Amino acid sequence: LTPDEQLNLDSLVWALRSEMAQLPQEQKSALLMRMHGLKIHEIASSLDLPPGTIASRLRYGTIRLKAGMSRLPLSDEARAALEAAGTKKSRASKPGPTEKIAEGSSD
Fold this sequence. Notes:
mainly alpha; 6 helices
């Protein structure tokens, strides 16, 4: 990595750690397990919870992380990398209820 790339990476890591610390423990645990490569059903089994509960915690945790990180002072390059990562959707679908809440829609 170049020094600039390392600085951008360090900024992103700092921002992610800072925002992860602000999450409720349930969301933080689910996100950390997912980041370590566990699938939703594996996390659910490990925590003895339904997969839907884990999916919800991951979704709400992700929304909170993205919102929190968007308010942080990041370089243009770091912000572009963050936005590019956020545009990768695992499936194409209409906005779910959490996206509607985030956008300010009531239905």
